[in-house]
Amino acid sequence: MTFKNRKRLNRFIVLMIVLVGMVICLFPIYEMVSTSLKYEVDAFSLPPKWIFRPTFENYRNVLLSNGFGRYFFNSVIVALSTTFFSVCTGALAGYSFSRFKYKGKKLLIVFTLLLRMIPPVILVIPVFVIWNSLGLANTRIGLVLVYIGLNLPFNIWVLKTFISEIPRSLDESATIDGCSDWMVFSRIILPLIAPGLSVAGIFTFRIAWNEYILSLVLTNRFTRTLPVAVSLFLTDAGTEWGKITAIATITAIPAFIFTFTAAKKLIMGMTAGAVKG
Amino acid sequence: MKRNKSPYLFALPAIAVLLLVMVVPVVSGIRLSFFEWFLRDIRKEPVFVGLRNFIDLFGSENFQTSIRVTLVFTISVVCLELFVGLVLALLLEDGLPGLRFFRTVFILPVMIAPVVVGVIWKFLYNPSYGKINYFLSVLGLKEVGWLSDPHMALISIIITDIWQWTPFVFLLLLAGLQGIPSDLSDAARVDGANYLQNLIHIKLPCISGVIGITAVLRLIDAFRGLVVMFIMTNGGPGVSTEILSLHLYKTAFTDQRLGKASAVAVILLGIITLLSIIFITKNMKDET
Lengths: 277, 288
Hints:
The complex is a heterodimer of chains A (about 280) and B (about 290). By secondary structure, chain A is mainly α. Chain A is about 80% helix and about 0% strand. Chain A folds into two domains: about 5-55; about 65-270, MetI-like fold, CATH 1.10.3720.10. Chain A has helices at about 5-35, 40-45, 55-65, 70-100, 105-115, 120-135, 140-165, 170-175, 180-190, 195-210, 215-220, 225-235, 240-260, 265-270. In chain A, helix 3 packs across helix 13 (about 240-260), helix 4 packs parallel to helix 7 (about 140-165) and helix 4 packs antiparallel against helix 10. The longest helix of chain B has about 30 residues, at about 60-90. Chain B is built from 13 helices and two strands, in the order αββαααααααααααα. Chain A: Pfam families: BPD_transp_1 (PF00528).
């Protein structure tokens, strides 16, 4: 075998492995989406019907089901307000951590890093108890508050990194021109860290939209979010897999959108911290 | 540097929220682990019982099983994901036509809600109309009771976790490999190193930091997660898939024992804090 042929063969094998990997990666998602578009007879038929007549019946049933509109609305409100507040407070703190020297700063940074790892399930009991006594249980505000805190360590840390990359001379000259710290932050820093804000925003939105355990415990039938609704469908609907996969697909829509519009930012956010640069 | 109050003011909102929703709850959770308190009697005062919750836990068979399940789960997913992710990253590091598309597709499982992942795989594993048993029967293999067989359920969950998280590991390791200065491998090749020598003496040492951080990150996440088990098996059959975080949840909201559940939380917190300290020291070392 010539060298060139061998190289081609290698490339072919690599390509095959990658294709198999892609099929394994995508098949479960395809299975969810396709089941949601099938009539019940087609969904359960074995051997499976790879070609079938699609229907939106399952989606109609989900959209018209009791409470769906409310759960969807709750999810949107909760995810958007969490994203807004968590990214804003994160940027402020990131600015403070990156630009100023003061007593206790290092301790605060290590502290926020430690908090980043806290499992939500550890917070469930105490937050449930405290929110009940503060009247925040079963409210969207209560849920948003926890989510802001849950996302803050990551946001502070990502935005601090972005701010540290801006040359200091920029804000120093602005200060000499008479800008206050607040003006430096809002007029110079914020516009320059726009890419960082969107990385933090996407990751925060994802966690707030996907989170399950806290929402299960801290909301009621008026304030619950989509993931909890999915799990209720699973117990209520029993074997109605058409409806279950339809609501699961709806819940996955933001994941699809982010993946196909912001892949680069997502990879940036995921690798930030583990890989330098 | 200026001496003014603004650095504190900028950090204040974040610190206040973190205190309210994380620090205060964690502290009160630790306190609660020394009390007996039932969910149904939540209006009554908790009763101080000292270390009894912890003594109960270590004597409880379910807790011991849960610890074992947790260790098997976390160690196997981290090892398998690192192995598969590393092989994929090594295969793809030189780039392929369409690599960007592959990378995009690989992000999807990470982005999708754990609840949805649980739903998908519960359907795939379904004994009567799940596709996995169908594929096995097409290949002439025996059907498997994926989620109903106590010996298989944890393996099924591990497979699901590998499906969801290997892409993440792959992306981190790929970024690590691509960060190796190319003159290093080039120099080795000029000196006559073959692929394997290059891998063992150049590439792996160069990305050992990234491998370590990825491992710790995944380990922490594996300890944190419970939703996929919650949806797919609710810890069963028996307690064969009840990892520590799910054990915590069920102790609190099924058995209604808030104090005992808080003791589980303290143990989980101890493990996570230990792992986090490893992560932070590794991370800070890399940053300087």
